[in-house]
Amino acid sequence: MNTVILQIAQRYVRALLLLFAIIALLRGHNHPGGGFIGGLLAGMSIVLKGFAFDIERVRASLKISPQAYIAAGLIIIVASFLPSIFAGEEFMKGLWLIISLPFGNELKLGTPLVFDIGVFFAVIGVTLLFLFSLKRAE
Fold first, then answer.
1. Each residue of 40-70: pLDDT tens digit?
2. Alpha carbon distance 22, 138 (integer Å)
3. Sequence-ordered strand ranges (E) for the chain
4. Considering the entire predicted model, what is its pTM?
């Protein structure tokens, strides 16, 4: 499109999309959402830059290729399976590490969050591959 208004607005809208993507990711391991919705939001923030400028500019500005996002996501997903296997539990059973924080608070980190992070990165990679394949189809 190459409109000046979209080019200026995309900076702020992309930041909001990334913020909402992280919120969806962190909220999702306890509620619906998580990695898939967060990954779509993060991927769409990159797609928005492609609409504002040019897809080739987006491809050049990426520091990580879409295939690397997908590979990293799949590795993280497989890594989320390992704690339950090593603990002798059921496959993909959720396990949590509870860290005590000051003032009597606790931080619960679990394998569902690790799984959601893997899905998050895999969905970003698939979204970018879809965007780049649309450019090739023109």
1. 999 999 988 888 888 888 888 888 999 999 9
2. 32
3. 96-100, 106-110
4. 0.85
